[in-house]
């Protein structure tokens, strides 16, 4: 009886202890005024995102991805029925700027049916500049830049093995090419301002180290990152406590020492020297070389287009341009940068695309779109505006288990996706999740082919800006070309490119696409529903 009385009194003693601490501390006035009870407020704040996600918000309210959007990705990744019944639950009466796809009544089916819903790029990457290793990407849906360090090793392995199954490509991110990226998936190697993996002892760019990295893995192209949507114009700091032996070896830095990524490149300083840098890398590696950037002021893009179209001196140019939306993405950043620095994707992309179209360069550059475009509707709008391929990042994270708890920057991701905590990362099984990654890519390509078929074209890149309207509730709609100031012909492929990709799609001629991405991959197995 004595011990039972002591046990029964423990909660009261603990509560009294918390109350005494609250009343005497001076950091939190709420707790000083409302001891014990005040902790409930902090508890609710801590789990607020989860409460809004599953209890408070409607199917279309939650951001960055609504419940409906996440559900489509989850179900597609699991290989189960991703259809919806009983009509749309979107508030069509009041939605502003909602894209509507305009089908054609007598459209004819054109694209050949394939098991993996293959959609090759309408352009040969590096073909316009005759790069030695130019190729036509097999998939218009690929995975965007996310570094090992930002994501766990298990997450990187699942993504890379998944894109291998789906015949897609995987961008390494600026953190360097790790062992986790070597699961068979073809790679786009990203070079950031820190030159991780291709830097000398002083942190400067080292071309020979880059060549060694390229030759050690299936690297298909190189992307020079000028900025990203989450934090354009902002550098980064990796604290020394996070620079483990493994990360130090991958990035070419000193273990335990804080690493600073500057906000600007040191290997070049303007558009002219950047093109020299591009040509130097392309000549030495033979690979297509492009740039990635969010869009701010337009002087840079006008100058770049002028230099690329110039007939004075040797012809120089980037092979592809990845435009990232200023809405932010996987990278952690100050809120003002995610919310307010750089243009939203559609505005930024349209301005850059028009600049290169007017310079006569739109058919010579592969335009890659990045920024919450990994859903059938948003991807369709990107293609209609002139994109040739799309990169997915957060959608890929969702496909392998992310719950949108928005804890990426705290190293506490509960599903082991965006963390370096070994226990949390252990919960993510790459062998299972690789199939979910592949299933998601296949599902997105399948829906893009269905949409193309409804419009009456064989390939998403043949969709034009007049095929979509942005709605003002149910009162009126305005075609994309009018909204973004596209004159006739803008957003469209040149006649030769259009004819060639239509032939490839109609004949199903996916074997001779160029490069090394022929059909020697295992099949992307469809999973049974799991929770």
What's the shape? globular
Beta fraction = 5-15%
Low-confidence stretches: 514-531
Structural class category: alpha/beta
- Radius of gyration using CA atoms only: 25 Å
State the helical fraction: 25-40%
Largest sheet: 8 strands, parallel
How do the strands line up in the largest sheet? Answer: 2-11-10-9-8-5-4-3
CA-to-CA gap between the ends? Answer: 46 Å
Mean pLDDT metric: 85
Number of strands: 13
**Treating each run of at least 4 consecutive H or I residues as one helix, how many helices?**
18
Task: Describe the 3D structure.
By secondary structure, the protein is an alpha/beta fold. The protein is 37% helix and 11% strand. An eight-stranded parallel β-sheet has the order 2-11-10-9-8-5-4-3. A three-stranded antiparallel β-sheet has the order 1-12-13. Helix 6 crosses helix 16. It is globular, with a radius of gyration of 25 Å. Belongs to the glutamate synthase family. It comes from Dermacoccus barathri. This is FMN-binding glutamate synthase family protein.
Which SSEs are present, and which pair or pack?
Layout: H1 2-24, H2 29-33, H3 38-46, H4 48-56, H5 67-78, E1 96-101, E2 141-143, H6 153-166, E3 169-171, E4 186-191, H7 207-215, E5 219-225, E6 236-238, H8 245-251, E7 259-261, H9 271-285, E8 289-294, H10 299-309, E9 320-324, H11 335-340, H12 345-358, E10 366-370, H13 376-384, E11 389-392, H14 394-399, H15 422-426, H16 430-455, E12 468-472, E13 476-479, H17 480-483, H18 495-507
Parallel strand pairs: 2-11, 3-4, 4-5, 5-8, 8-9, 9-10, 10-11
Antiparallel strand pairs: 1-12, 6-7, 12-13
Helix pairs in contact: 5-16, 6-16
């Amino acid at each position: 009886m004595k011990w039972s009385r002591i046990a029964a009194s423990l909660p009261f003693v603990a509560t009294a202890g918390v109350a005494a601490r609250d009343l005497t501390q001076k950091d939190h006035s709420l707790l000083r005024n409302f001891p014990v009870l005040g902790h409930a407020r902090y508890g609710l704040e801590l789990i607020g995102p989860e409460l809004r996600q599953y209890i408070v918000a409607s199917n279309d309210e939650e951001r960055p991805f609504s419940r409906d959007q996440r559900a489509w990705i989850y179900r597609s990744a699991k290989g189960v029925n991703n259809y919806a019944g009983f009509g749309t639950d979107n508030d069509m009466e009041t939605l502003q700027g909602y894209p509507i796809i305009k089908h054609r009544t007598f459209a004819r089916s054109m694209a050949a049916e394939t098991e993996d819903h293959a959609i090759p790029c309408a352009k040969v990457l590096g073909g316009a500049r005759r790069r030695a290793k130019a190729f036509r990407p097999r998939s218009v849906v690929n995975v965007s830049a996310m570094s090992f360090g930002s994501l766990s090793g298990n997450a990187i392995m699942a993504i890379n093995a998944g894109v291998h199954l789906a015949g897609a490509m995987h961008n390494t991110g600026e953190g360097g090419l790790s062992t986790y990226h070597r699961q068979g998936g073809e790679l786009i190697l990203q070079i950031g301002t820190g030159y991780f993996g291709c830097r000398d002892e002083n942190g400067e760019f080292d071309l020979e180290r880059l060549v060694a990295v390229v030759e050690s893995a299936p690297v298909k192209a190189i992307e020079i990152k000028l900025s990203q949507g989450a934090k354009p114009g902002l550098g980064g700091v990796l604290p020394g406590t996070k620079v483990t032996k493994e990360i130090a070896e991958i990035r070419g830095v000193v273990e335990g020492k804080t690493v600073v990524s500057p906000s600007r490149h040191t290997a070049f300083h303007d558009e002219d020297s950047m093109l020299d840098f591009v040509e130097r890398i392309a000549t030495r590696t033979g690979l297509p070389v492009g740039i990635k950037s969010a869009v701010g002021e337009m002087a840079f893009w006008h100058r770049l287009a002028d230099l690329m179209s110039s007939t004075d001196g040797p012809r120089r140019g980037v092979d592809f341009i990845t435009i990232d939306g200023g809405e932010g993405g996987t990278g952690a950043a100050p809120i003002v940068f995610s919310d307010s620095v750089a243009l939203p994707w559609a505005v930024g992309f349209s301005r850059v695309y028009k600049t290169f179209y007017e310079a006569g360069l739109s058919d010579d550059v592969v335009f890659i779109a990045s920024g919450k475009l990994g859903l059938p509707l948003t991807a369709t709008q990107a293609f209609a505006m002139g994109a040739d391929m799309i990169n997915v990042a957060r959608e890929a994270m969702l496909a392998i288990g992310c719950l949108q708890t928005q804890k990426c920057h705290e190293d506490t991701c509960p599903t082991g996706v965006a963390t370096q905590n070994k226990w949390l990362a252990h919960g993510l099984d790459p062998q299972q999740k690789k199939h979910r990654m592949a299933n998601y890519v296949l599902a997105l390509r399948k829906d893009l082919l269905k949409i193309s078929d409804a419009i009456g074209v064989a390939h998403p890149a043949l969709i034009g800006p007049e095929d979509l309207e942005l709605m003002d509730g149910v009162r009126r709609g305005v075609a994309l070309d009018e909204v973004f100031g596209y004159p006739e012909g803008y957003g469209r492929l040149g006649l030769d490119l259009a004819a060639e990709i239509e032939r490839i799609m109609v004949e199903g001629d996916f074997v001779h696409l160029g490069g090394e991405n022929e059909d020697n991959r295992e099949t992307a197995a469809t999973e049974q529903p799991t929770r």
